[in-house]
């Protein structure tokens, strides 16, 4: 199963993003919009993990989460990936206690390694993917969304999430793990 560890922002924060997306949804240069039910901040992408590893992985994540305090962050701004050339991904940014969030991501990655389910990739770039351009052509960039800093929220839990790809792409929660003791 394809898994990742993420943070789901609260509904109030996501509603602000949804309103900003709605304002530009039908522009000719807009990307294909991702499903708001899948919006999250990825702490670690694990890829394919055998179901037999889930108990060990969940336990390792719980141990890592117990040692971490809840960083306070908020959604703000937008940008695109890659940094050069035509954009492929439109994202909403994150601000606030980024050091705390980065530390949480490192702890999650260590926990995944210890459970023999290492995270893919090396860096952590906190963002919420809201759109993707699938075809070449005229594309708007980071200026497409105007999202002022939103209400702060404490990251109270991490979530182990199964990702289903294809025409019925969706996410399914495997485990929710509270931060702190």
How would you describe this structure to a colleague?
This protein has 181 residues and is α+β, with helices and mostly antiparallel strands. The chain is 24% helix and 33% strand. The chain is built from three helices and nine strands, in the order E-H-E-E-H-E-E-H-E-E-E-E. It has helices at residues 11-24, 54-66, 98-114, and strands at 2-7, 32-33, 41-48, 72-81, 89-96, 127-132, 153-154, 157-164, 170-178. Strands 2-6-5-4-7 form a five-stranded antiparallel beta sheet, sandwiched between helices. A four-stranded antiparallel beta sheet has the order 3-1-8-9. A hairpin with a 5-residue loop joins strand 8 and strand 9. The longest helix has 17 residues, at 98-114. The mean pLDDT is 90.
Question: Key features?
Answer:
181 residues, alpha+beta, 33% strand, 3 helices, single chain
- Strand content is 25-35%
What ranges have pLDDT less than 50 throughout 5 or more consecutive residues? none
SSE class: alpha+beta
Sheet with the most strands: spatial strand order:
2-6-5-4-7
The SSE string, one letter per element, is EHEEHEEHEEEE
Number of strands: 9
Rg, alpha carbons: 16 Å
Morphology: globular
